[in-house]
Amino acid sequence: MASNGERAYQVHQAGLGQSEGPGEWLAVTQERINAFADVTEDQQFLHVDPEACKTLSPWGVPIAHGFLTLSLLTKLAESVPQPPERLEGIVMGVNYGFDKVRFISPVKVDSRIRAGAVLTAVDARDANTLQVTKTYTVEIEGEGKPALVAEWVTRLIYG
């Protein structure tokens, strides 16, 4: 009889190259940007000073930190629809890191963003652990270019 990890591997292999999403929209408010600036101690005017941005910024308004957009990927990914059979038997997922991250376009204050993903790799680490890579694209509502594209590597442990 196949283990949960072996079944999950087969299900993930069958999904290679398939798109997931898009997920739900999330607003990037000045309050969210300010809170991130406080936590990271990155108070650059481009993020936290709307008045200075009117004259000094090429966008005329504050923009989110690139790392804020990246950190929101955890929240954005939660709402990305995916086949339920990929989730069966998961005990936990562990963030293993990123192979590549690119910040393509700035996220202006009060924009809405959402994510979509493509399953790009799956490797069996042992009988109950998969290493899964998904390429996430975070789009900005009404914009032609995405905010970011990231190859996110996760370890999925099955029970």
- The average pLDDT is 94
Overall 3D geometry? elongated
- Counting DSSP E segments of at least 2 residues, the number of strands comes to 6
Distinct helical segment count? 6
* Separation of the first and last Cα atoms: 14 Å
Q: What is the CATH class? A: Alpha Beta
Q: How many domain modules?
A: 1
CATH arch. level architecture: Roll
SSE class: alpha+beta
Question: What does this 3D model show about the protein?
Answer:
This protein has a single domain, classed as Thiol Ester Dehydrase, Chain A. Helices cover 28% and strands 36% of the residues. It contains six helices and six strands, in the order H-E-E-H-H-H-H-H-E-E-E-E. Strands 1, 2, 3, 4, 5 and 6 form a six-stranded antiparallel sheet that branches.
Which descriptors apply to this entry?
single chain, 159 residues, alpha+beta, Thiol Ester Dehydrase, Chain A, 6 helices, elongated
Task: Briefly summarize what is shown.
The protein has 159 residues and is of the alpha+beta class. It has helices spanning 4-14, 30-40, 45-48, 50-56, 66-71, 73-78; strands spanning 19-20, 26-28, 90-103, 111-126, 129-140, 148-158. It has a single domain, classed as Roll (Thiol Ester Dehydrase, Chain A), CATH 3.10.129.
